[in-house]
Known about the structure:
alpha+beta; Alpha-Beta Plaits; 2 domains; 10 helices; 50% helix; 12% strand
Amino acid sequence: MPLFASFARRRADVLPAVEGPELPEVTRQALPLRFEVVAESLAADRDVLAACTVVGRDVARDGASLGEALSGLRTTYRLVRGTVPGFEPTEALAVAWSEATLEYLHDLSCEDPLTGLTSLAHVRTRLAELYRDAELTDVSVRLSHALVVVEVLPRRQDAFADHHFTRALRMVQVAEATRAVYSGGQTIGRLGQNRAVAVVARSADLGQSVALLREFLADLDLGPSDVRVWIEGLPVSPDSATRLLDELAR
């Protein structure tokens, strides 16, 4: 059974067929599942990075672990070229696998159990509701709402500052400060390891509320950290809003 069962039900990414020398049938039969397009790119001496990116996402959706994905790439290189993969194809496959896995994990739950901040999936859902309402009212979400983003980056780079629990403790304080300012039922969620976001109305006092949030954050014991707070405008379309959230969560 796949590690992430729902991945297997998604449509696989598709690359156009690679023109070039045919793979021997004995080689084709020995290839790991999903890696045929990588083998064809290698045999044709074409750019293999795009193929590795597609395969990385596909094997993640199939539920393969990163170790299994890298092993498949190594086997494919050995069968086709008799060598091991270099850094760039390995990186392309690993990054694609990681991004596909993160997309899945972001959709799993509604709330971060450590910080109490809602998940990225819940923030997406709230934005989707706003965009649906905008279709009925003819008032653009870009004009009616915005994101207030808080970022806390530790200045000290060591094991303690980067520890998951240390980051969580910082975000707990950020969550409390943000809720103190935006206490009217606004959605407040977590974006990645070091960011929180509040979905707020674009009211006349938005700038004042952001200034107040900065004051609250300045009073917190966040350790040696650089704290940024900014207003992020929302795009016109819901698809663009989803991409914006994904970028902010990286």
